[in-house]
Write a structure and sequence with these properties.
elongated; 31% strand; eleven-stranded antiparallel beta sheet; alpha+beta
């Protein structure tokens, strides 16, 4: 019984320190989650300023590795050079990776040159040029707007009424894929439509994992109450054994 009493006393003395140690433990690491953007804009049907492809939507997402952009259209489209009906889609997407209009090269932006309402304060560093689409590889060149220097390629997939463009963030100077975007498209003869009109598709961080709920640690009083409960149970057990 003396041994048990000494053990109980030691547990009670250690309770405050044990409670502090429990409370001071770092939280469990959160699950990793890549930066992700999801931005989209609709474009009015019939607002094309020349006959040809009519944009109805423009969206962008990134998984932390690739920037994926989707252009949607009011009618059927086809990849260049097309079959002569004027539905082939060429043009470009300007990408402002640092989202800073004071940097980049607005003079080299296709949007600033061909859109009736170009966005103000837009300084793209890169451009995906659909003029350079290669049907054999399914790719188009990614250019630096300063000097139109090719820095890599983007994967381009044509569907019946949409075009999907995927460019690795590493091609965009190692960017995180968070960017301001604007596009102007057309056919081989002329530009036909822009999106967004007079603005940029601005991205925001979304889809992040919410912080994990902290596991509450026992307070000193709670820990002492638990120890006393365990001690009481132990006393009852020992008394029963002694009486047996």
């Amino acid at each position: 019984m003396k041994v048990f009493t000494s053990l109980l006393a030691g547990l009670l003395l250690a309770a405050p320190a044990f409670a502090r140690w429990t409370a001071d433990q770092p939280p469990a690491p959160k699950a990793a989650n890549p930066a992700e953007i999801r931005a989209s804009v609709t474009d009015p049907v019939g607002d094309n300023f020349n006959p040809g492809p009519d944009l109805t939507g423009f969206s962008a997402t990134t998984d932390g590795t690739n920037l994926t952009m989707v252009l949607t259209f009011a009618g059927a489209i086809e990849p260049p050079p097309g079959t002569g009906g004027g539905n082939e889609v060429v043009g470009g997407i300007d990408i402002d990776t640092d989202q800073n209009g004071a940097t980049g090269d607005p003079a080299g932006a296709i949007v600033g040159t061909f859109c009736p309402q170009p966005p103000a304060g837009f300084g793209p560093e890169f451009e995906v040029s659909l003029f350079t689409f290669d049907p054999l590889t399914g790719t188009a060149d990614v250019l630096e707007t300063a000097g139109f220097t090719p820095v890599g390629t983007a994967d381009v997939t044509f569907a019946a009424t949409s075009v999907t463009i995927v460019v690795a963030n590493s091609v965009l100077g190692g960017d995180d894929g968070i960017a301001d975007l604007a596009t102007v498209i057309g056919n081989s003869a002329t530009p036909t439509d822009c999106a967004p009109d007079g603005a940029v598709l601005a991205s925001d961080l979304q889809g992040t994992v919410p912080p994990a709920a902290a596991v509450p640690a026992l307070s000193v009083a709670g820990l002492m109450a638990l120890l006393l409960l365990l001690a009481s149970v132990a006393v009852v057990v020992m008394r029963r054994r002694a009486a047996a």
